[in-house]
Amino acid sequence: MEDFMEGQRSFGTVADAINYKGCPAHKSKTGGWLPAALILGIEIIERLSTMGIAVNLVTYLGGTMHLPSSTSANIVTNFMGTSFFLCLLGGYLADALLGRYKTIAIFSVVQTLGTAMLSMTTKLHQLNPPQCEAHASNCQEANEFQMGILYFSLYLIALGTGGLKSSVSGFGTDQFDERDEKEKAQMAYFFSRFFFFISIGTLTAVTVLVYIQDGVSRSLAYGICSVSMFIAILIFVSGTKRYRYKESSGSPLVHILQVVFASIRKRTIDLPDDELLYENAIEGSRIQHTDQFRFLDKAAIVAKEDFENGSNAPNHWRLCSRTRVEEVKMMIKLLPIWATTIIFWTTYAQMITFSVEQATTMRRSMGKFKIPAGSLTAFFVLAILITLAVYDRLIMPFWKKWKGKPGFSSLQRIAIGLVLSTAGMAVAAIAEEKRLSVVKSEGRDTETLPLTVFILIPQFLLIGSAEAFTYTGQLDFFITQSPKSMKTMSTGLFLTTLSLGFFFSSALVSIVTKVTETHGGQGWLADKINYGRLDLFYWLLAVLGVINFGLYLICAMWYKPKEDLIPKGSVQMEKQIDDAESAS
């Protein structure tokens, strides 16, 4: 095998990649910086579109569609949750049917159509209810037809976003040969800036795009998103001949189901000694056997009926290798950390819903310029960029000198993010208490309170810093601690924490609204924010954050790192691969 790999390198081709014609990919003609940049460009535009819509959507739903506060918040969180949940669908299609290139191309077109439709939806008067004065009690809510068109537009965008986002980082990784030291270094450098560049896209969305929405025309802003994505698609397709393509090895989800079904089929058979379990993986890629989740080991028990028609190849729905079983065990072990990071994205959801709604009631003028409420999230993005810069330039060098390690571990970064997000909710609750005290003195129907919007900045900064640690920590954890053959699956698992965090926010808002409502009065999350007690809702999230952090610490202490499960002979090889891929 090593001789074959060496022969491929000397011949100038990449061993596991092909070009657009299906022939071995030549290094001088495919891959590298330029194709990777074309792929990154389409991700930047996706972030520009999605965040430009999400951060300011709540003001449109409340101000134009005349929906209650809690309903508006839930529409936004459900939209974002669905976008990330559909990454699982996109990942499955890329792995099992289409490949990453076609998945990106198809779903980017879907998102372009969605944003174009949303632009028309906000432009046509027939698709919006009659205008009325702010805070008026007789405003007519959008009817079912109007909301139906809006929902169709939003979820078309969500479908496009999910399919596109599932494959972009992976296809970018495909453009570098991890076995080549020079290209591996290029990949690490390129993808270490991946999060930085998409954060720039987000910053542009929450400043320039939100200003156009509020100050010029919302339909124009969404039209810009659609045209930008169309141009990005043309640029992306222009690199077709330069890309490197990886042939699909099948869906990891199917592999997991095969292990589960095979173990259930043999549930009544006693387990033999470990040496008698079936194994067909090559020596260097085998994973050390563990005693956790022993019932899954039954999938590797050999029986006569496992081999069809006298073939040496087993039916994988009846017999799985011991290494394949251990890969599934590794994925199961990720689940406790996965579950305890969901609450972070629930607190994050408040920054693009209720926090933006808070800003609409406060003084936002700087001279003659009035800051759009949605643009307050710019401080959120700035906090991410500053935190990443401080961590990269100050914390990592200091930590390496003190501890001999290049920065915090992935679990430590997640822990820091959870603490900061909980503190952010506590600070948000205190700021809302101050805002409500002004509401009490000025009157609940006051359109603009004599209170500066900048008292909301600390909560945006804290949650932004929290995301910088949590997002990078989660991505690093799920990629490096998963089996190599299931890295796409583990990335999808990571993205579902975002999805479920948004969905949990929607569920929590609905529950709190129902439980706290009184006869003849309104609860914590009233139809109009000045009539509610948003501060108590924020305190509830802070308490849930403290409880969740305690559970996270227990799960983190229980978790056994991947390096302890790999045979000593293959630790170095796996570590080299993981170091390159974790940068993505």
TrEMBL record:
InterPro entries: MFS_trans_sf, POT_fam, PTR2_symporter_CS. Keywords: Membrane, Transmembrane, Transmembrane helix. The chain crosses the membrane at residues 75-94, 149-173, 194-213, 219-237, 331-351, 371-391, 411-431, 451-471, 492-516, 536-559. It holds the Pfam family PTR2. It is a multi-pass membrane protein. GO terms for cellular component: membrane. Its main location: membrane. GO terms for molecular function: transmembrane transporter activity. It is found in: Membrane. GO terms for biological process: oligopeptide transport. PANTHER family: OLIGOPEPTIDE TRANSPORTER-RELATED. Belongs to the major facilitator superfamily. Proton-dependent oligopeptide transporter (POT/PTR) (TC 2.A.17) family. Belongs to the major facilitator superfamily. Phosphate:H(+) symporter (TC 2.A.1.9) family. This is Transporter. It comes from Lithospermum erythrorhizon.
